Amino acid sequence: MSRIVARIASSVVLAVALAVVSAEANVIHNVNNDPHWTRITQPTVNRPLTRYDDVQIMPGDRVWVSAGGCVQTGGHGQTWKHYVRPQGSNSEYLYHGQIMIGGLFFAPTNFSDLAIVLDAHGFTTTWSEMFTVANCGGSAFPDHALYLGFTDDNYGDNGYYSHDDGNNDQCKYVGDAYVDIYILHPGE
Question: What's the pLDDT tens digit per position in 47-73?
Fold first, then answer.
């Protein structure tokens, strides 16, 4: 019984956290004329988790992800941080871009945990490993939607304004954050 109560409670918390849909990010389909490749520029970073309905993901899809760029985290001084591998005070647990897909990642997962390789300037040089989306029927996730998240302790001043080079020049010559997702449907 306590497992059921815990599952219901976590579902309610998750539902409240996911209630807002992004209107800030740009979703670009058919990157380089490839119908499988979608890029999200300036993913939402002023709240913990945002659902992206423009990206369709289904059970059995094979998915690769990549991310890079920088984001304004607010505060004083050099406040831009890398979206995948942030540096500076508290960056071990704050300022990370995250992804969640029902049937694949059942909790927000830092992009830095997906073995995405970056070059010396913070640009992505590889995609993640390939993931296959499972059927998540009966779980706390009623769909296979794409959610992107960001970790911070003050979301109100995050965004993509007043670019600086960040701590240790982590954002020097680096543009705004982006997420690439490559999806192959079964049979493709």
Answer: 999 999 888 888 889 998 989 999 999
